[in-house]
Amino acid sequence: MGRAAAVAAAASGWKVAVSGRRPDAVAAAADDVRQQGAEALEVPVDVRDAGALREAHDRISGAWGPVNGLVVSAGLNAPRRSWSDQSMDEFADIVDTGVGEQAREKWR
């Protein structure tokens, strides 16, 4: 979902900062953005790390100014699919990856 949104934004003329935990996947998505003729900034980051999110924001805003849009599509799957088999730690990790730190972190 995030990669498709990045490519669509690029096709609409936006500069796109591509982020994610895996630098290889970030680079591949950024290449897709560039193929649309748009400028891409590669920003590897773990969204569960509030300090890393602040650094990512600072890097993006330092390069391009204020952040004008945000697509949050980070996700994590638990190895056990049934609610009754999941621990609260596993569930908390899913929530923190999906929205936790982004919701807590205030974008300046």
Characterise the protein shown here.
- It contains 4 helices and 2 strands.
- By secondary structure, the protein is mainly alpha-helical.
- The chain has helices at 2-11, 23-35, 50-64, 88-104, and strands spanning 16-20, 40-44.
- Helix 1 runs parallel beside helix 2 (23-35).
- A two-stranded parallel ribbon has the order 1-2.
- The mean pLDDT is 84.
- The chain has one domain (2-104): NAD(P)-binding Rossmann-like Domain (Rossmann fold).
- It is elongated and about 45 Å long.
- Strand 1, helix 2 and strand 2 form a beta-alpha-beta unit.
Query: Total number of helical segments?
Result: 4
Q: Provide the helix percentage.
A: 40-55%
Quote the CATH topology: Rossmann fold
- The second-level CATH architecture is 3-Layer(aba) Sandwich
Rounded to the nearest angstrom, the distance between the terminal CA atoms is 25 Å
CATH superfamily: NAD(P)-binding Rossmann-like Domain
What is the overall pLDDT average? 84
Order of helices and strands: HEHEHH
List low-pLDDT spans. Answer: none
CA-atom Rg in angstroms: 15 Å
> What spatial form do the alpha-carbon principal axes imply?
elongated
Oligomer: single chain
Keywords: Oxidoreductase
InterPro entries: NAD(P)-bd_dom_sf, SDR_fam
Family: Belongs to the short-chain dehydrogenases/reductases (SDR) family.
Organism: Sinomonas terrae
